[in-house]
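User: We ran a pulldown and think these components assemble together. Before we commit to crystallization trials, I'd like a predicted model of the whole complex to look at. Sequences follow.
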Amino acid sequence: MRFAVVVFPGSNCDHDAQYALSSALGQEAELVWHKARDLGGADAVVLPGGFSYGDYLRCGAIARFSPIMTRVREFAAAGGPVIGICNGFQVLLEAGLLPGGMRRNRDLKFICEHVHLRVEATDTPFTRQAAAGQVLRMPIAHGEGNYYADPETLRTLADDRRIVFRYAAPDGSLDERWNVNGSTAAIAGICNRERNVVGLMPHPERACEAAVGSTDGRVVFESAVAALAACAPVAEVT
Amino acid sequence: MTDPATIAAHGLTAAEYERIVAILGRHPNLLELGIFSVMWSEHCSYKSSRIHLRNLPTAGARVLQGPGENAGVLDIGDGLAAVFKIESHNHPSFIEPYQGAATGVGGIIRDIFTMGARPIALLDSLRFGSPESPATRRLVDGVVAGIAGYGNSIGIPTVGGEVAFDETYAGNPLVNVFCLGIAPVEGVIRGRAEGTGNAVYYVGASTGRDGIHGATMASAEFDDASAEKRPNVQVGDPFLEKLLLEACLEVLRTGALVGLQDMGAAGLTCSSCEMGARGGAGIDIDVARVPQRESGMTPYEIMLSESQERMLFIVRRGREAEVDRVFAKWDLHAVRIGEVTGDGLLRVRDGGRTVAEIPNRPLADEAPLYDRPYREPADLAARQTLDPSALAPSGSPSEVFLRLVGSPGIASKRWIYRQYDHMVRTNTIAPAGAGAGVVRVKGTRRALAFSVDGNGRYCWLDPYRGAMLAVAESARNVACAGGRPIGATNCLNFGNPERPEIMWQFARAVAGIGDACRALDIPVTGGNVSLYNETDGQAILPTPVLGVVGIIEDAGRVVGRTFREAGAAIVLLGAPGGTIGGSEYLKVMHGVVRGVPPALDLGAERRLQQLAADLAAAGRLRSAHDCSEGGLAVALAECAFESGGIGLDVRVPGGTQAGGATAALHGEAASQIVVSVRETDADAVLARAASTGVPAQVLGRTGGERLRFRLDGAPVVDVALAEAERRWASGLSRYFEAPAA
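Assistant: Here's a predicted model for the assembly, 979 residues in total across the polymer chains.
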């Protein structure tokens, strides 16, 4: 499968995503410059972590105007799988592809550490290989990951089962103590109504090899590969 | 003729002024005076320190570049080079902690990618006053946030470091930042201007009035008026530097560059004249072409500005378009401001008018060289005198132990490193908070380990031995991770060198570094000297900080600090025993810095480090940790902390006679490493140690829920691991986290 990893000025997890997809998962992964005219025929799009445009304004607020975002919107509208990781999630929020917004972490500090996530929805292209309620251990690294949604949006997210990941205890139980950044309803990741666009604050691309501490992130990308294989035209498969 | 007040305001002496007149054959104008003043400042010229630094060992089989460039370079195999250096940003961090620390990070990162390397790791060595003081908490908060703000944004992981607290740093904190990058060996480029007619390019941020005379500020003591120097501190823009980093690495791949240099201290002045001097060339630049973010800037201000995120390129004639294309892609300035000449002069124009003309070589290389007088402090013998029997009783051994593990210098530094992205670039192997930072080198089987260490108390009591101990500890931390030390960089933080006692500290410390590095076969490839670390006449503890780089052949054999399982044998490698002279125990429990620091046998140290690396490579070590502040008991406890609740039960070598328990538990010593090994490997490990001449003994076993230390057969410290770990985990953070509501 062919993944496009979008490079905004200030992206800094672009190489990590490319490395995880290519070296750890054996997929094709191309870096796509934000001024590019197209996504290079990609099957899936990754908006990586970083500090696009320095994030001196709200995180992701400028990146949504990058030329490539027009193509990303079209790709998403056509049902293509899009994942926004950390800053990429923030960009998806600012671009209106996902609802809600981000505030600074509850303790007002940048936090980098491993956390536990509970998989809340497995009918997205990035979680279909995971089990419902499965606990994944992967790092977070952000200063503004305190997800906020107003009560109505939150109700919609819950009713439509669009909450994809929640911060949880290692055993999967939910408790405000494990809600590392103070997010509304301990939300770590959500998807759009059509379920093909997923955003999450934790970094699955940093959890694809035992050598760097966890392999729990692999399921996110393996799911995408499986999802794409499942819907690939028969002619291409044979 | 310049009036004496102007000369003095530029930090130049009358004799130095005479020397300028002799070089020029005339009196300098104000711009030229400004240029000389920054180039001949202590910060840029090392005029007080060069005479001593000459004695450091700088050669080695792996050394591709020693001191004198933007950074040192080591061959790490597979056609790759490690490019690394440490630098201080002490003075700016005191005046404006966030920006001071942030621009310190930005500056050292530029030094690394300037050499053609992609930076992959940062470490910090920090010193502050007592955390009891609100002023200290403000500084710590600002410095840590500044390091995080810059490093996290640019996407280079901060993988390790150290922090210590002592009242002498209250008015003069230390912020030393180490950075390491990786480059293909043939891709390493140097800061040289060569080839008459080649273009001189200015790239990166616009020039403003920030930081004018920053280098001169960093070469003077502080006093009450220092707060007024805030405009001298630069403001960092990590986003811009991220673009600059990517653009520079991209443009370097084209081969269009002859050389490049960061505009750090002394900005455009230093970069142009140093590059010209190294290449034996002249540089002719027009300041009117320099992008400016303020109007009405004079040539003086443009030449002396220390605005951040700027670099100077020498571009091969005819290949300018390749540079222009890359910089246009990244939306960055790349402006031709002049060219390389054959006359050896730094010629500065302002439009059509020549405003300065100085020969490069004397400016860069013939700065005054001082052999400043030095004298042993009169009270040295008194400092080294310690009568343990005169110390007040300090509680039961268990109480002392808990106090120590919860003291800020020993306690967990998680509150700090949690704010640093230590995982970006997905190379970080050792978990944060371990003794050494370890990153794998993608595309190879290897990993690199690094550690930054220094102990100001030891150096205040005996700068020669203290500096040797810093070298040994830094290298030992690398060895504990399984690394073999291959090179070092140093950051030498001292007070005012014009005071003979301070100069004595400096000279003795440099001698100690030299002797230790020679004995351990670790070449010094560069570093930084920070003098005048004084406020209102109060000098800091002399603090040489060593950054040692080691290589681990098999990244799968990296060893961590924490116990891995219960039932493992705990082995002490190295001769037992310790001294409380200059120890953390003495400072924390008695508020005293006295005595003689631990003795160091460099031959024994070298054998110990080789043994640790050999055992790691053979896969025999489950964990390894060096004994340092707090002694053997603290070192062992640190192996149990964060292990997931694996306690220990050990026999401590030594006796219970007068003061014996304290020395046995908390006495400090060089050349000791505690390891845990599989029970079935214990005999083989002891045999291996014996065959290499390293003393070794089994102290006990991992396991249980307690930390139990026995002396003469009886438990002398016996505490619940959970309680000790709680003290350790909150010992630093309790000063910084708001109390629970």
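The longest helix of chain B spans residues 134-154. That may be worth checking against your pulldown data before setting up trials.

User: Thanks, that helps.
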